[in-house]
Fold each of these.
Amino acid sequence: MTRPLTGEPLALDLVNSVWVDQGRRLDQFDEPHGLENWLADHGMSGTTADSTAVRTALLRARSALRSALDDGDDGPLNDVLAHGFHRPGLRDGAPVVATVTDDPAWLPAWTAAADLVRLLAERPDRVRHCANAACVLWFYDVSKNGSRRWCSMEVCGNRAKTARFQKSHPRR
Ligand SMILES: [Zn+2]
């Protein structure tokens, strides 16, 4: 079973690396090559850090993102973000921003955690939980009128439509 790819921003895509399929909680990082695939999907496969340490840091960041989003608890996310910072500078006269972490293993995790701060600075009202209460996925609504309700129309949107239809057309 592969994860439904939602194409969400980095922070939410890390959050969404845990999902529920038919009542079962699945974790991309438990799958063979799950970590490598996730890093490659986000252009971060170049890390020379130990993959166990990278995985541990990502799991910390994921649970911190969940605490911030699900429970409104900022503490764990701030702890993750304490492992790095952005350092603006110039290269040949052009502006550059480097990401500096205290350990290279923290780079993917820190980058994902910082991405949520960016989203919340940009459009806090657009960072939303899927309207299907049984779904654990989050999304960033970039639609013009902000009317998106589902992680994916194909999965949760259609499920809701079917449920509504069955309610209004009871079988005899
Ligand atoms: Zn959903």
Amino acid sequence: MFIDRAEIFIKAGNGGDGAVSFHREKYVMAGGPDGGDGGRGGDVVFVADKNKNTLIDFKYKRKYVASDGENGDINNMSGRSGSDVVVKVPLGTVIKDKETGKTIADLFYDGEKKIVLRGGRGGKGNARFAKPARQAPEFSQHGVKTTEAKIILELKTIADVGLVGFPNVGKSTLLSVLTNAKPKIANYHFTTLSPNLGVVKYFDDSFVIADIPGLIEGASGGAGLGHSFLRHIERVRLIVHMVDISGSEGRDPYDDYKTVNDELRGYSAVLAEKPQIAVAAKSDISSGADALKAFEKKAKIKAIAVSSVANKGLEELLKTVYQRLKELPPPEPMAVDGYEYSEPNGDDFEITAVGSGVYEVTGGLVALLERNVSLGNDESFRYFQRVLREKGVVDGLIKNGVVDGDTVIIGDIEFDFVE
Ligand SMILES: Nc1nc2c(ncn2[C@@H]2O[C@H](COP(=O)(O)OP(=O)(O)OP(=O)(O)O)[C@@H](O)[C@H]2O)c(=O)[nH]1
Ligand SMILES: [Mg+2]
């Protein structure tokens, strides 16, 4: 099965918490703090792999989670880092954030890598908080907790040439005679259900042809199978537009030609403006040169007459394609938005009344506080109060009508408000 679009969940590992511990040894009184740091969480990394050609893996496994960093330990031992999760995707996979629709990466070259989510930093152990005025810190820092993201993977085939046309006009047959590819060929519509790639050796050079499944009228609006495949034409450099010049299915080749071009235009300006070469296929059974002339006149384009079965016109076609490709710029990755997931801003907060006399503070500030506050420790609690005041949370609460005795919830922390 060919799958060229998938939605998956990814999550980087949480950072491990710093430890609170004090050195203990026989005959040594009141040893110093020796709580180690938490380890870093693993990243979520995507890698383009030329041995993959579909996104089918993602139909069955939809969640990719890197492992968490371990907590710090006694004796200044740092927690082990979480391991990365490395996800292999075919070349030409575009990664987008589901929520914003922004593009994160276009993995175009074999081995190209993108860290999409970074693991949370580990928290500092209490040993790090020792200073002359505070020799026995009873608190440590929590690791950064990461959040899950939903992303879209889209495969956009990378090829120099795209073969497009109505179903059954002989695209796969042409690919099979020009390249090493062995696509399925049959005398019915939609024999090809996914793009096939083949490599043409041309003297010392080579180029890649993609056989795109047949397009029909309405494809750009989602009719038939066509729409989902138009995306694969987006980054070919040259379109070879095939019509059945023999009219073997009773249609006028010019009507087909026009219909397919309308579809390309309907999908995007990029497709409409791609350079094209017209190919009059099945010329062995055409009613002679007349059909070709009529087509060329109506379409106002020169077409190359070919027959894959009678081996006619193939040399001319290859030569023309090769020359056009030489003039065209090389294929390039998409211009990506460069969207990055970032850690929440520690200054951001929002206050909502969740019930009578109960208020909740949410936003990036909460993550910062959760990280740095150890409940039950006086010094840490004073830090907590100071941050609430400095960042304007106290003023904000009062503005929202909070009075003494009301309950305030900040992440896992819940307390009674006292001005
Ligand atoms: N006479 C003749 N028949 C051909 C030629 N090329 C292909 N055919 C026949 O046309 C039919 C369709 O060929 P395919 O290559 O499967 O066509 P396609 O365009 O890939 O079709 P879809 O995958 O369904 O879009 C088959 O029966 C082929 O044998 C040709 O040059 N001459
Ligand atoms: Mg085919």
